Structures are given as C-alpha cells and as structure tokens.
Amino acid sequence: KQEVTQIPAALSVPEGENLVLNCSFTDSAIYNLQWFRQDPGKGLTSLLLIQSSQREQTSGRLNASLDKSSGRSTLYIAASQPGDSATYLCAPAGGTSYGKLTFGQGTILTVHP
Amino acid sequence: NAGVTQTPKFQVLKTGQSMTLQCAQDMNHEYMSWYRQDPGMGLRLIHYSVGAGITDQGEVPNGYNVSRSTTEDFPLRLLSAAPSQTSVYFCASSVTPGLLYGYTFGSGTRLTVV
User: Fold this and answer.
1) Can you tell me the distance from the alpha carbon of A59 to that of B25, in angstroms, rounded to the nearest whole number?
2) A41 Cβ contact list (under 8 Å, min separation 6)
3) How many CB atoms lie within 10 A of CB B51?
C-alpha cells in the first residue's frame, strides 16, 4: 500500500524567501506525481504534474522534481508571496494502486508580508 | 467549460437519513472518483469508476454506494448517514486513471451529520 509523507507539516516564512517542500512515497512504481494547492475551505487546484519519465517540471515560480527510484519529490517555490499561503499536497498515482491518487497530509505554508 | 461540478456545497443531515452527493464533469473524462477529507487523515478514496457502468471500491467504501450510468455523472449515495460520515467530500476526474494527465477536482461538499 502506497504511503506518502510530507515534510515539514507546517512552514511560516517572511515574504521573498525561497522554499522547499518535501514529499516521500513508499511505492516507487508510480506513473506520475501531482502537486496540489488547497486554500482554506476550498477544493484542490493542480499545480504541477510530473510523469514518471520526467525529472522535473516548472510553472512560473514553481519547480517540482521527481526522483522515482528513491521515492522522493520536492516542490520549490521561488520568491514566496503572501498569496502563496495555502496547504500543499503531493499525490503519486499508479503502482499497485493503478492510477489512483494517494495523498500526503500536506504542508501548511504561511508567508508573512 | 465548467470542469467538475459538485452539489450541494453544504449539507446537514440527521443520523439515519439518506442523501445523494452529485458530481458532474463536462470534459468527457472516463475516470471519476470520490474522496473524503478529514482532519489528520488526509484525503482517502471512497469509490471510483473507470467508465460508464464500471465502479469499484476504494480505501473507505463502507456506508457509501455509487453508480455510473453516464460518462458525465458519478453520484455518491449515503444510505443511512452516521456522524462518522461528517467530512468534506471531493469528486475528481481524469481522462484516463491519471496515467498521462492529472486529475481535476471539484470544489467539495461539506457534510455534517448530527
């Protein structure tokens, strides 16, 4: 059974800092890994999708890397802004779960002005 | 293009009542699924469907029924609501089971069972 761990559980930083959020998973036979953002009381917004054959994916100030063999992914946020404050969730898909998403507990990010 | 639409957004039920949470997508996605989100437990898969007429159980299926008569709709039925089913429910869809494309999530239904 796939298990996902996200570190740190919470992060509070001043505006402008570069951040790294970590995600580890136990079943490395995944098809892809998706990073989501969730604002309080809202749904999940997809940020980045990395296929198992890719090493990284970029969108604006966000960069996600994937090391499938070691079961790790990182989300890098450059020049953080207060609007980045949210919960960030990683979810690998596939392996023995055939395409189904397994979620970590998330990292709660607070960026202070 | 509405994406994934969930109704209602909020619902309060009494123990023992039944109800259906609606989920509809207009992207012609074959794969649809239901998750519940609870504090400290994260998001857990309830049921999923790989196409019309095909459904299967996820991690926490007890107390819930699903059916998939059309590609667009995937309703979740609570047969006899219990306080343990108080949660936020999310519906998600994908072109295929997340292999080449990511998942799109609805905005959620917040359910309270008293």
Assistant:
1) 25
2) none
3) 12
Written as six digits, the tokens of A112 are: 């202070």
Looking at residue B102, its pLDDT comes to 84
Q: What residue type is assigned to position A16 of the chain?
A: G
Looking up tokens 């507990």, which residue turns up?
A: A105
Please report where in the chains the tokens 């949470």 appear, as a residue.
B21
pLDDT grade, residue A94 (50/70/90)?
A: confident
Angstrom distance (rounded) from CA A53 to CA A40: 33
Task: Please list every residue in chain A whose beta carbon sits closer than 8 Å to the beta carbon of residue B107.
Answer: 42-43
Hunting for tokens 């306080």 — which residue is that? B83
Summarize the confidence of residues A12-37 as an average pLDDT: 94
Which residues from B are below 8 Å from A50, CB to CB?
A: none
What is the per-residue pLDDT for A30?
Answer: 87
Q: Is residue A95 classed as helix, strand or coil in its secondary structure?
A: helix
Interface of A with B in 1-60 (CB under 8 A): 31-32, 34, 36, 42-46, 49, 51
| Cβ–Cβ below 8 Å for A99 and B99 | yes
The yes-or-no verdict on residue A96 having pLDDT over 60 is no
- Tens-place pLDDT, residues B24-53: 999 999 999 999 999 888 899 999 998 999
Quick one: pLDDT at residue B13?
A: 97
